[in-house]
């Protein structure tokens, strides 16, 4: 019989016990009164400050010179805007990122400032918040982020990120809130409100249509208006209208031929026009803008441009010149300055009673653990393999690339320097103590694997171990085409990649011979042990490896055999590896190193057979989920599929625990009995994962994305709408699960799916009316009961179906959800309301939202594919 399961591992308020004198009741009462008085005074002061914002802004604006106004609308350092001392206006400081305050950057360079006290609480990524389907988790996430940003003296925290997961390959999916516009919109509001309660401006990003990293600056997004309004704008609209967000960051990409930061339609017509946004629109770093269009079409603050002097920014001296010549009215500048000053006053930058914030507190760390707990999704649990029962386990095998992997300082601008990070392995050790034998392995596959990142000393700016890759137009390598970076010593030609991902290869079969790629890859390699390293290469084409300028290994041909070469290397020394490749197919460079990090197949399978429990921590890392580059495919890297399949054969009860921020193919899913999805869980991830595995916490997360069986099943790939030039959003409003339902494609796991260690029943659906009209709302109620033996939470999901519509609408659209905690035998009535907007689509004829007369079906369940109750009502104009 399974033990009882706690819903929360720890309370949010943490009390510490110490050997100190106990206060008297009077002292406690006095302290409580003082604390209450301080809180009341802070609230009163803030209300007074907010009431005077517009008056103070106009007073300052009327006294400023033209040059002082210009200083408000462009950066004067990497992350700050200059002060104006004669008005006592302090510097405005910004900081990445959405999962914790980034370490301190030098004032005028991208180098680390080298501070020792700039660590912050590393929160679970926003995918975890989305997977919780819980507005409380969004509030807690925002409260910690805002408080810590204030303590670090930041004025704008660059988050949350809210772009939608249109494509599984998108490098920044891990930063965002899933694929559904309604879910993201409902979670962004409490996140923003909580951040801004701490006297810090939230910065919702990236507005808009930033759905790929492939040529992120140049790609031209061209969705139709209905797709734009129904799918990609609602989350930003909610942040503006419901959360009153103080700032928004424009995206890198183009929109119908111009950068989104200077798009009249997106900024002036919609953001600042229809929605009434009165905050600051600021750029990302190094975007493709120009002075006139940016100024006239609503950009307020230019934060990064690749020029030598900040005076050369588009909104610096060039803007001043165009105002003086009369090309741009000064009133345009005034509006921008007014917005920046408004933000500064709203967050109390000139207020001595501004909140101070807190950082790295026990409470914040426990919140991080709680959010991670609530975001874990139990995908599969055949025969109730989970939770594991501690007394029955004496020998556990922990295996996989993420078992002891830390993720905080990677991924790009979302990196966080934390005081510690609990890996899954450490979490299991903390949970099991010294009485259980834990065997740890990293498995080697039969496929030649590239040199592991453990040996790669060179780093990309995102913090990921990486190789520099340069592409040339000629074999002599005199004409550079492009320069980028790549995670592994593994290369697949774009010609080969297009062949692999092509839905219809008829054109491929009739095409002429492919052009040759001329590439050079470089990395600094640092051996872990001194001794003989057996280099191995498998290549189709001409391959040459040089080490410290000496040619070591060459291979030419199309026979794809493995060539090897022994080389003596010294531990701790850094060697420059340079690969030259001429070909149009692929290569892999690997090695056998002394004291190898990896166990062979026979060893790890023998350990799996003899273990009481096997947990494979696989998935992705920030070598895969990362800013600046999309993934090439949806497969697990480094032959994980082979290793997982072998483990499942050796021990059918192997638990597969995925750590990833984007979808992956899982060809072994049917064979596995237990699959868990954990995301990047922050500094307390390992403890949170152990809580789930051993039943201290009952999993209640639900997938905020679809997990397709194949990349080819996804809309952008099927419709050939993923490239470096132009994205038409050909699937229209059918993003994510909507596409899979429309096309009748079965994914591996659906949107909204997630299991529990207990069971629930859903009964007694009722509608507040059979017909509504005009602006009337309708309320849907149902009874939910915990019918199992353990306490836990369930997420009720309400999908709406327009029975007969004049336009093509999704079969189901998420329009409501509620997370409910119940002890065994407990029942609760849950209410979800629908308004006219929920019934509406964007009508291109009237250029407005339209709810058509007719019948609507309410579908209530615990997942997209687990609808338990239905009811219908009519809407009358």
UniProtKB/TrEMBL annotation:
The keyword Manganese does not apply. Belongs to the glycosyl hydrolase 3 family. Residues 43-70 form a coiled coil. GO terms for biological process: carbohydrate metabolic process. This is Beta-D-glucoside glucohydrolase. Residues 462-609 form the PA14 domain. PROSITE patterns: PA14, PROKAR_LIPOPROTEIN. The lineage of its organism: Bacteria, Pseudomonadati, Pseudomonadota, Gammaproteobacteria, Alteromonadales. The keyword Coiled coil applies.
